[in-house]
C-alpha cells in the first residue's frame, strides 16, 4: 500500500496540469456541458464514440471514449482538427477544455475545430469509472488505517490485480493513439494537427509513428525521451536532472550542495537529521525539501530567490536552523493531502506506463537502487522510492514504438519544445526527441522563472508566437532557437536580479 501513496504524490509533483485538475472533482469538470446524443458534433459540447476495446479485433467488444468538441468560430478560415493532450498519463482533457480555450489566441479558435479527447481511464472514457471506484476504496482503507492488512489484500488488491490484467493491454499509448485515429476518421478528416504536453509528447510521437500520413502538424511540448525503454531508465535520468535544478535553485553555492548531500546521506540510513535549533527531520521531511527545490515556479508571484521556501531552505543549509522550514512543511502537508485525495492519476499512471514498456525489467532489477544513487547522491533515493512503478507487474504489455521506429517512420516537420530547467521532463529528453525525429525543430525555454513544465499558451510570448505560426504553416522550416522568459517590469531593476544568477556557470560535481 505504501507504493500507492508514493504514486499519488508522484503525479502531483510530475503531472503538468495536476494542480488545476485536482482543484475540482471529475464530475464538476465534466459539468460545463452535458453529453450530446448526436452521432457527429455540430456544436460545442461533449460527445462519445464507440471504438474497439482491442483495435486488433475491430469486430469485437466495443468501449466508449469521450471528447469535447469546440467548433471553429469561422467557417471560412477553418483549417481542420487540432487535438490536445495534457499529459500524465492519467490527466483528462475535457476537464481542461474551457480553461485552455480561454488562453488560446483567437486565430487558433477561429481556424481549428478543437478536440479534447479523454484517454482511456480518465474522465468518462473506457475503464475510468472502475478505476475511480477502486481509488475510493483505497482512500477509505487509508482512513480506517487498514491498508497494510490481509483484509486489504484480500478484499481490494487481489480483485484489482484481476481487473488490471483485463484492461491494461487496452489502456496503453498504442490504444489511445488508435482511438485518436478512429475519432479522426469518424469526424471525416484526412489529417489532424496535435498539441501534446509532457506524456502527451509520447502519445503524439507514437501517433505520428503509427499514422505518419495522418499528421498535418504536431507540437511536442516538454518532451519525453524516446530512447528509454522502461520506467526505470527515465527515472534514473530524472534524478540527474533534479540535481541540476537544485544546483540552480541554490544559486550554485557549492557549500549548500555539500550540506544537502550530507543531510540526505543521514536520513538515507533511517536516521533523523538534527538541527542546531532543536528540530528533527526524518526522510519524509527531507524528501519534501527536495521536492520544494524542483517544484514549478509560480508565475503569479515573485521569483524563487525571493520566496519563503528559498529563504527557509537556505537558512537550514547555511546556519543549520530548521524552524522556518518546519513551519512551511506543516503548511504544505495539508495542501498535498487534499490534492492526493481528489486525484486518480496515481492509479492510471502505472497502468499506462508499465503497459508501454519496450524492455521490461525483473523485480530484482527494479528493486536495485544503485544506479539511482550513481545518477545523483541527492535525488537518487527520492526518485527510487517514487518510481518502483512496475514492481510485481503481472499484466500483458503493449510495447510502444522504439526510438529507431520513430526515427525511421516520421519524416514530417515536428515542433519540439523543451525547458532548460523543466523539473518533470528533463531538457535532454527534448534533445533526445529532436535527435530522433530528424525533421524536427527544437525550441529551448530559458530565463526568468523557467523552472516550468508546459510552455505553449501559458504566458511565454516567444513560444506562443512560434507555436501559432507553426500550426498555421507546418511545412515552413523553423530554425532551432531559444526563448528567454523575461521578468515583470518591477523586477528588471532589482539590485541582484535574475540576469546575474542565470549567467553563473554550473558547478561540476565534486
UniProtKB/TrEMBL annotation:
Q: Where is this region: Disordered?
A: 32-51, 479-510
Q: Which residues form the signal peptide?
A: 1-21
This protein's GO cellular component annotations are: cytoplasm
Q: Which residues form the AB hydrolase-1 domain?
A: 108-445
InterPro entries listed in its UniProt record: AB_hydrolase_1, AB_hydrolase_fold, Pro_iminopeptidase
Spell out the Polar residues composition-biased ranges.
Answer: 487-496
Kindly state which keywords UniProt assigns to this record, in alphabetical order: Aminopeptidase, Hydrolase, Protease, Signal
Q: Where is the composition biased (Basic and acidic residues)?
A: 497-510
A single GO molecular function term of this UniProt record: aminopeptidase activity
> GO biological process: any one?
proteolysis
Q: Which PANTHER family match?
A: PROLINE IMINOPEPTIDASE
Q: What is this protein called?
A: Proline iminopeptidase
Organism of this sequence: Aliivibrio fischeri (strain ATCC 700601 / ES114) (Vibrio fischeri)
